[in-house]
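TICKET: design request
STATUS: open
ATTACHED STRUCTURE:
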């Protein structure tokens, strides 16, 4: 079985290749297809998904596969280890010509993320992590930061700050937004923001890589109710996510109780 750092190196190389494909399509009016409630997908998403599936499974033929752009046949549920991939996280931003989309790649073993890469090709930002090895941005070590909930900058949407989510009062935070969940989580691991949160049912491919980046940077992570995250669920979703520096995470959960 490859070590986490070997899987991390594989993911980083594959994410760089994904970035090369994304750059070819970005700003070129790629074909867009409607997936109904699941939102749009472009020809770039599909091209990257194909490349990642071939590249990663050729390198690790015993691993399972879960991707936003590949029909899930359930075979992954029998795999001890699998790839969890979002070819382009932030597809709407990509279509609109934005630069804050990301490629989100992770390895999950027995429900835990062991290797991760989140790459923003148009910002030249490669976030990576391996279990027990820390998290990095372009090779430099990351540390999650945030000492108090008061006026903490939290990446989230307006909907997550309605009173219905906060039995003990809406937190006194400063709200910030970025379009990609993977990028939001990576920014928390980087220490640029104190936390991120979403309370909607959340697809595993959006958050698996970012989850490891936060925890390996020393941050705290849970679902929206404070329970630990587990991956490779039969329906590949979790009940929201709160990822933050430990004191901020504790403060948020105290207001959710």
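STATUS: resolved
RESOLUTION: sequence designed for all positions
ATTACHED SEQUENCE:
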């Amino acid at each position: 079985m490859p070590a986490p750092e070997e899987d991390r190196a594989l993911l980083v190389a594959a994410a760089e290749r994904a970035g090369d494909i994304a750059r070819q399509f970005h700003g070129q009016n790629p074909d867009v297809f409607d997936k109904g409630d699941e939102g749009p997908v472009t020809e770039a998403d599909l091209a990257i998904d194909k490349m990642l599936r071939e590249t990663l499974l050729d390198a690790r033929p015993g691993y399972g596969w879960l991707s936003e752009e590949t029909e899930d046949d359930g075979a992954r549920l029998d795999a001890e280890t699998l790839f969890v991939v979002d070819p382009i996280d932030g597809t709407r931003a990509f279509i609109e010509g934005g630069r804050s989309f990301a490629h989100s790649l992770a390895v999950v073993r027995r429900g835990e993320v062991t290797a991760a890469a989140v790459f923003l090709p148009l910002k030249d930002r490669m976030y990576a992590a391996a279990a027990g090895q820390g998290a990095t941005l372009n090779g430099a070590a990351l540390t999650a930061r945030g000492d108090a909930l008061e006026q903490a900058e939290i990446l989230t949407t307006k909907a997550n700050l309605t009173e219905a989510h906060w039995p003990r009062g809406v937190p006194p935070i400063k709200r910030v937004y970025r379009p990609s969940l993977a990028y939001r989580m990576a920014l928390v691991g980087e220490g640029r923001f104190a936390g991120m949160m979403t309370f909607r049912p959340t697809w595993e491919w959006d958050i698996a890589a970012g989850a490891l980046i936060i925890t390996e940077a020393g941050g705290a992570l849970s679902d929206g109710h404070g329970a630990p995250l587990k991956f490779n669920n039969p329906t590949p979703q979790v009940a929201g996510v709160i990822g933050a520096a430990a004191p901020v995470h504790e403060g948020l959960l105290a207001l959710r109780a």
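CLOSING REMARK: The chain is about 30% helix and 25% strand. The CA atoms of residues 220 and 250 lie 8 Å apart.
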